[in-house]
Amino acid sequence: MAKAALDTLRELYEGNSDRAHRFRYGLLAFDVGTILYVVATSFSNHGRVVEMLDMLFGVVFLADFLARLSIEPQKLRFLIRPVTLADIVSIVSFLAPLAGEGLGFLRVVRTLRFLHTYQLFRRLREDFPFFRRYQDVFSATLNLLVFIFVMTGLVYATQYRTNPQIENYADALYFTVTALTTTGFGDITLTGSLGRMISVVVMICGVTLFLRLAQVLFRPVKVRETCRKCGLSLHDADAVHCKHCGATIHIETEGDY
């Protein structure tokens, strides 16, 4: 009986059947809904209803985690992966009793659920040619958005109640975006040594990610098609020969050209 249950779980999480694809897309959709929930509840007061919803999300995440752990052949390696550790911390944050703003620091670990958007992008890239063709643009956009929301959660968690300029999640998001773009209006600043270090991280890392997005948006579009002769993987969308070795390449296109 246990073996049959494990086989079913393995087929759902790793199989290629239509049922497996629907199941995994369902989990990814749930993750997206969780991300929207994390952002939305950051603007509201936490009461009994939100606390119950937190527990519900936490139970689902825990069940998903235990299912993935049960079918993993190398459980120790699975448990020490950075993404797995982030999942564990995130699960604890949802299952912890949250009532009121006093435990606002837990929101920073909740934003680790944003890491699951990488799974969504990976699945879309595997299933749809459009996402494969423009994967550099989507990847750069995703990296920037994840960084913005994770850093916003960190700013809010460390500055709320200690910094009168950070009264809600919107204030933290506003500061993160202005620091990232080096606009620097100066109407909101972070206090203390920790606040200054967070500002430095936002400016250095955020500007780098922003410039990367601008680069992939405004440079000529490339597609990934590995040359069988020399191994060059990036080519112009309309290329018929490899720039490096001159070999003929066959880039799949959509529609009529």
From TrEMBL:
InterPro entries, alphabetized: Ion_trans_dom, VG_K_chnl, Volt_channel_dom_sf
GO molecular function per UniProt: voltage-gated potassium channel activity
GO cellular component, one term: voltage-gated potassium channel complex
Record domain Ion transport: where: 39-210
GO terms classed as biological process: action potential
Keyword list, A-Z: Ion channel, Ion transport, Membrane, Potassium, Potassium channel, Potassium transport, Transmembrane, Transmembrane helix, Transport, Voltage-gated channel
Gene3D superfamilies the UniProt entry points to: 1.10.287.70, Voltage-gated potassium channels. Chain C
TM ranges: 25-43, 49-67, 79-99, 137-157, 169-188, 194-214
Name the UniProt record assigns to this protein: Ion transport protein
Organism for this UniProt entry: Salipiger bermudensis (strain DSM 26914 / JCM 13377 / KCTC 12554 / HTCC2601) (Pelagibaca bermudensis)
Transcription regulation recorded as keyword: no
